[in-house]
Amino acid sequence: MYIIKALTSMNDQCIMEHMIKCRPGDHFWKGCVTAMLALCNDDGIVNQKTALTAIGKRFRVAIQDRVGPWEVAEDVGRFLLRVCVAIHLDSDDDKFFLLSYMAQKLIALTKGECAAESPDNPQFQEAAVSGHILLLIIRERLENTLNIARRKIEFEAKRKGENFVLSRFMLILEIKFENNFFNNLSEVILFVKYPVYHFSHELIRAMGTQRSGEITRGLEYFLATGNLISKGGLTLQQNNGFSVIAERINQLRFVSHFRAIHRGAFFMEMRTTDIRKLRPEAWGFICPVHTPDGAPCGLLNHVTASVRIVTHYSNTSELPKLLGELGMVGHSAVTFLPAEP
User: Fold this and answer.
1) Which CA distances in Å does 185 have to 160, 190, 218?
2) Whole-number pLDDT of residue 199
3) pTM across the whole model
4) With CB atoms counted within 10 Å of each terminal CB, which end of the chain scores lower, N or C?
5) Domains and CATH numbers, the chain
């Protein structure tokens, strides 16, 4: 409930109305929501600001490398919600409505009113193309480099105390002459052209102690071997098998490598067959017959000819107008005749 209250500025009454909107007759769920809101009030979480502050204080130690010590707990809470909660949504209101719906669906599942969703269903998965993984590797390497430089600078700052100087701010001044058309006098105007930061030796020393090729070495090793060397795992379930040798038996076989999509090496050793099933949701997206025999059967698939993997949603605002011009009639324009007696 802390996260729910941190995502919206609504009062408790409005939050309860949204939380029980799909289950108005469920008194048990209404009592659960009331109890959670009461516990928040007992802890002093009465509005959005106090909820963000409480979350920021509790999780600051876990993300101290990504937030500055000068940032208040409220800003830390906002950062945590932005990068950890429903990251596919940009608006806090959308995240609030999503969590409200998920909570109501969870209580319906526990009561046996709906079936459990299968994580093996293609509609709950997304395709990770090579560019995504390469960018994740580069980002992790850059973050490691910056964290090492930051720790060295902090160590030097504590050791030298007040004598520590990180950078000096200097202004480059330019003298500009402008002609005065009235008295033919030249007026000297002194103004700031552009600022320049002169970095101290501490910063240069901290950045210069990095090993050469710290960023590119890991990327070259990944492309050459297909093995991933990462501290955090990059949210991936495997650390090898990311690259294969392209077979040139014929042209179609070579081209099929670029249409292949693999579930992951993690599922190769699983004994269950649910991950290999062809589900109705895959129709039109994954070819039902183009999969090899043996161990990778059902795991190594190929997308259909009409599939295009995108990184953003297409603009479909003009689609209803186009369908109307082609002769499609909307359901709101259809009038049903009364049934004959």
Assistant:
1) 53, 16, 64
2) 55
3) 0.72
4) C
5) 1-111 (3.90.1110.10), 130-220 (no CATH)
